[in-house]
């Protein structure tokens, strides 16, 4: 065998297919191992101090209220020295103490699309952490995975390739078989947070939506998800849509269905340049729809969340790019920033986020604290925007 033959070993299509099988098999094996014994993710539990922080009261207020016996009591842990509350129990407490921050009776859910043209900027991580953070604050959350990669679905402990059927996704509404996404909504491992999954089969939407438009002039290819979310808007408090790294037909639908638009953006030149193209492409498309189809659309808010900020080496270049981001998106950049952190990497390695970490977490406590306070701050700021959006609805 010549050196060239050794380097360039031909790979047949059959061997690539075999590779695909092997990757899928290994993925299932890893998932099985990580989520043993029941192959299911578990929601976190809370001690009284954590519960007090969620309710924004003193730890003693929790002890006192426990004596009244009108809220869930939790259970003592195995060693009998600490009371623990399930997520569901904690949410009952939080809803009691944070009643004035929750959705007003007749308001609709506020829908937020998390979007950016560029891959790997933190869209899925942002969607999931916000959903979990907002759920811990007592809101009823629906998460819709609009990305055929199904990364968000994976964070729910569901394997897109083998465990997601068409009827669990938004595909039926894209093909016109369903008018509403409600039949696709599933309960998840996390009480108070439901999910519509995604899988590679959702790529079909990219052919179906334009083809429906070609056949029927009155069809609104950008409005399908918006209409399909109608029922869910009264059922939930907040709806979060994770989108693929492209301005696909499904992304356009997610954006047009939303009251708020959130763009995660790492402070690096390529990501910032790509974001500029995203806004250009989107505004060209929207301009066309305004001109040709008389479309009108108003967002309650558009925000940029600076993500994956390198804490060490916060050098001149990074500072200059951050400055550039602030100038470009004046008034739209959230003051919360997400650092690039081992905490996110470590939790992602077991198909989770920092909010899935338990007391047995492998993450260094200081790293954990820094990271969670950044995610909590982002959640607080999004909650404030959501509340303003509810107020706007009520003023109408
Ligand atoms: N703040 C962070 N610190 C460290 N790693 C991060 C952080 N945010 C995200 N990551 C990691 O970066 C990778 C990409 O993140 P994520 O999947 O959220 O991006 P995305 O924009 O949704 O990607 P895609 O465009 O492929 O959908 C993941 O492995 C994730 O765990
Ligand atoms: Mg993603």
Question: Quick summary of this structure?
Answer:
The protein is α/β, with parallel strands linked by helices and 396 residues long. It has helices spanning 3-7, 13-34, 48-55, 59-68, 87-97, 123-136, 151-155, 160-163, 171-175, 205-215, 224-228, 230-235, 249-256, 269-293, 316-328, 342-349, 365-395, and strands spanning 46-47, 75-76, 83-85, 110-114, 141-145, 193-196, 238-242, 260-265, 301-309, 333-339. Helix 3 (48-55) crosses helix 4 (59-68) and helix 6 (123-136) packs across helix 17.
Account of the 3D structure:
By secondary structure, the chain is of the alpha/beta class. The chain folds into two domains: 46-97; 100-355 and 362-395, Rossmann fold. Helices cover 48% and strands 12% of the residues. It has 17 helices and ten strands. It has a seven-stranded parallel beta sheet with strand order 6-5-7-4-8-9-10, with helices on both faces. The mean pLDDT is 92. The structure holds adenosine-5'-triphosphate (ATP) and magnesium ion. Adenosine-5'-triphosphate (ATP) binds at residues 119-125, 147, 149, 151, 245, 307-308, 338, 340-341, 344-345, 348.
């Amino acid at each position: 065998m010549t050196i060239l033959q050794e380097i360039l070993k031909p790979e047949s299509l059959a061997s690539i297919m075999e590779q695909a099988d092997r990757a899928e098999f290994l993925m299932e094996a890893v998932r099985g191992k990580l989520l043993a014994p029941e192959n299911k993710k578990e929601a976190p539990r809370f001690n009284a101090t954590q519960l007090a922080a969620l309710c924004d009261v003193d730890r003693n207020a929790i002890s006192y209220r426990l004596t009244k016996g009108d809220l869930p009591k939790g259970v003592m842990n195995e060693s009998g020295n600490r009371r623990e509350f399930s997520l569901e129990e904690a949410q009952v407490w939080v809803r009691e103490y944070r009643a004035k921050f929750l959705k007003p009776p007749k308001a609709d859910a506020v829908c937020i699309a998390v979007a950016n043209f560029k891959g790997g900027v933190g869209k899925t991580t942002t969607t999931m952490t916000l959903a979990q953070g907002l759920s811990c604050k007592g809101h009823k959350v629906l998460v819709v995975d609009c990305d055929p990669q199904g990364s968000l679905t994976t964070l729910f402990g569901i394997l897109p390739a083998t465990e997601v059927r068409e009827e669990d996704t938004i595909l039926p509404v894209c093909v016109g078989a369903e008018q509403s996404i409600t039949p696709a909504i599933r309960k998840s491992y996390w009480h108070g947070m439901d999910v519509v999954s995604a899988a590679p089969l959702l790529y079909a939407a990219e052919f179906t939506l334009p083809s429906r438009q070609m056949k029927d002039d009155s069809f609104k290819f950008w409005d399908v998800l918006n209409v399909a979310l109608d029922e869910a808007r009264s059922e939930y408090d907040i709806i979060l849509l994770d989108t693929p790294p492209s301005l696909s037909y499904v992304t356009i639908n997610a954006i047009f269905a939303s009251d708020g638009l959130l763009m995660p953006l790492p402070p690096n030149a390529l990501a910032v340049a790509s974001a500029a193209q995203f806004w250009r492409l989107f505004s060209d498309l929207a301009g066309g729809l305004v001109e040709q189809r008389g479309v009108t659309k108003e967002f309650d808010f558009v925000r940029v969340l600076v993500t994956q900020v390198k804490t060490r080496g916060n050098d001149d270049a990074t500072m200059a790019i951050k400055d550039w981001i602030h100038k470009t998106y004046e008034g739209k950049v959230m003051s919360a920033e997400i650092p690039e952190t081992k905490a996110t990497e470590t939790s992602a390695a077991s198909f989770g986020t920092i909010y899935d970490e338990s007391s047995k977490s492998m993450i260094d406590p200081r790293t954990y604290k820094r990271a969670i306070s950044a995610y909590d701050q982002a959640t607080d700021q999004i909650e404030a925007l959501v509340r303003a959006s509810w107020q706007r609805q009520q003023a109408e």
